[in-house]
Amino acid sequence: MQIIKTVAAMNGYIREAIQSGKCIGYVPTMGYLHDGHLSLIKEARKNNDIVVVSIFVNPTQFGPNEDLDSYPRDLDRDAALCEVEGADVIFHPTPEEMYPNGYSTYVETFGEITKKLCGASREGHFRGVTTVLTKLFNIVRPRNAYFGQKDAQQVAVVEKMVRELNYDIHIVPCPIVREKDGLAMSSRNSYLQGHEREDALVLSQSLELAKQMIADGERSTAVIKQAMCDKINSVESTEIDYVEIVDAQELENVETLSGDTLIALAVKVGKPRLIDNVRLEVK
Q1: Cys-Cys with 54: which of 91, 93, 171, 245 at CB 3.0–4.6 Å?
Q2: Looking at the annotation, which residues are catalytic?
Q3: What digits encode the pLDDT tens for the residues 109-124?
Q4: Domains delineated in the chain
């Protein structure tokens, strides 16, 4: 397995792979890998000749008061995990390599799809996401790119960007990977202190509550959201950013549940802000 740190070297590697007729699978990450990331690498390994994993903590998707400086980083650990899972290349550029002095070109997806959920409270976040992924897609030139469904809004935004910019890339959403007790795996889980780890279970528990209410016949989004909020607010260390129930395709608000539905939430547990969601077909 190789670790490549410059765009020029990555371009050379990819050019040779494409000329050899290789199919490239790509897993973009910000590092500090967990089993959720590893599940994406495993899926990519099944269906591609070459698997590229990028490890890049992208500064343009962090707000001024967010955790860019403290975001966990451990390249040696990540490289060992990638090698075990059969990755061929890690692309690990510096911020200066990706955004050289004077950089001023950005890609942005407009519309309701970026205004809701995380976009409502993280101004500029998705402009950072779509800009860095545009650059990374141009560098890696994958046939298939793998994303975790835990970042459901990101998946929807990336699918829209790829569709509208006519990229010949297949976006492959992969299921959320959870701890045995139900907590969705996240690099930010490492921030949880003491009882906050147990408190964080209220995220998945509130989603299970919503699923049970729907199974019992409830179709009012307002009623379900209120029940979820009440459950989350019963845990003292939590602070709700959002709890939303939307159409899973365009993330539009719905009053009465029907069809392809996304139930998504973002909650601070102590200092860490965690996200989770469930997608289901409501009949």
Answers
A1: 91
A2: 37
A3: 998 899 989 999 898 9
A4: 2-174 (3.40.50.620), 187-276 (3.30.1300.10)
